[in-house]
Amino acid sequence: MSEYDNQKPPVLLDAHRGMAAQKATDIRRHESNVRADQESLRIGQSELEKQLFAGPATNWEQVAEKAIYVARLFAATAEGQDPRYKVLVEAVLEDFHRLTDGGSKR
Q1: How far apart are CA 92 and CA 67, in angstroms?
Q2: Over the chain, what is the mean pLDDT?
Q3: Which of 28, 37, 38, 65 is most buried (CB neighbours < 10 A)?
Q4: Three-class SS of residue 2?
Q5: Using an 8 Å Cβ cutoff, are 74 and 80 in contact?
Q6: How far is CA 95 from CA 70, 81, 104, in A?
Q7: What is the Cα 99 distance to its own chain's centre?
Q8: What are the residue boundaries of the structural domains of the chain, listed by start?
Q9: Residues 6 or more apart from 17 whose CB is under 8 A from it?
Q10: Got the DSSP string for 45-84?
């Protein structure tokens, strides 16, 4: 028989704290998860940019991929949220999709 066989189950500390303390802990946990997600996105974006801009495009599809990326970056800015620009960006993205393999049924 080991020393752990006679131990009580662990106490769940959340059950012994007040509601305000539980909410504060939940907020801290959520913020920590959001920070981790944001860091993961930053790393992914950095890796994507390294691939997209590692060298000159060798075909029109690669040019379209780069232009789509830049259009999406612009769309995420305050100026890109202007309704006129939003429509233009969406139209350009649709054109690229239609004119590259993404829109054809070959």
Answers
A1: 9
A2: 85
A3: 65
A4: coil
A5: yes
A6: 15, 19, 12
A7: 26
A8: 15-55, 57-106
A9: 25
A10: HHHHHHHHTSS--SSHHHHHHHHHHHHHHHHTSTGGGSHH
Of residues 73, 81, 91, the one with CA closest to residue 99: 91
* One-letter identity of residue 99: L
Q: How many CA atoms lie within 13 Å of 37's alpha carbon, on the beta-carbon side?
A: 6
Q: Quote the tokens at residue 74.
A: 């612009």
Token pair belonging to 8: 């009580």
Q: What is the dihedral of CA 61, 63, 66, 70, to 10 degrees?
A: -120
Residue located via tokens 């690229």: 96
Nearest to 23 by CA among 32, 12, 14, 10: 14
Least confident of 56-60, 90-94, 96-100: 96-100
